[in-house]
Amino acid sequence: MAIRYKQLCIRCKKNYVSVTSKQRYAVCYECQMKNIDAKVKDPKMKKLLDIPEEYYRKNNFLANIKLNYLRFGKLSEKQIEVFKKVVQQMKKGS
To answer: Where are the beta strands (DSSP E) in 1-94?
Structure first.
């Protein structure tokens, strides 16, 4: 299990972010959402990525997957599969 600690956001230098030693960059939710709020044009991906904002706030992995899609324009099958799995787990936990 990785140790969690808080670190200042590398962009705004105002908010603290809970990170692990495996994470390279500590970016707060507000700074990350500036990049994630872009519109998704592909209907299939729009349906996949249209989850409650709360899920993106609670799970940095989900936010990173959406950011990767917006940056590169596609996701691998494994990324899509794991994204769906994590969303289902979060729905069960809610």
So the answer is: 4-8, 16-20
Domain boundaries, the chain: 1-30, 38-94
Give 37-84 pLDDT, tens digit per residue: 888 889 999 999 999 989 988 888 898 899 899 989 999 999 999 999
Which residues, 6+ apart, have CB-to-CB distance to 36 below 8 Å? 56, 63, 66, 67, 70
Could you tell me which residues are beta bridge partners of residue 65? Answer: none
pLDDT value of position 1: 65
- Residue 33 to residue 76: CA distance in whole angstroms: 22
For residues 74 and 66, what is the distance between their CA atoms, to the nearest angstrom?
10
Confidence (pLDDT) at 47: 93
Q: 70, 41 in Cβ contact below 8 A?
A: no
Token pair 């969303």: residue: 87
Q: Which of 56, 57, 93 is nearest to 83 (CA)?
A: 56
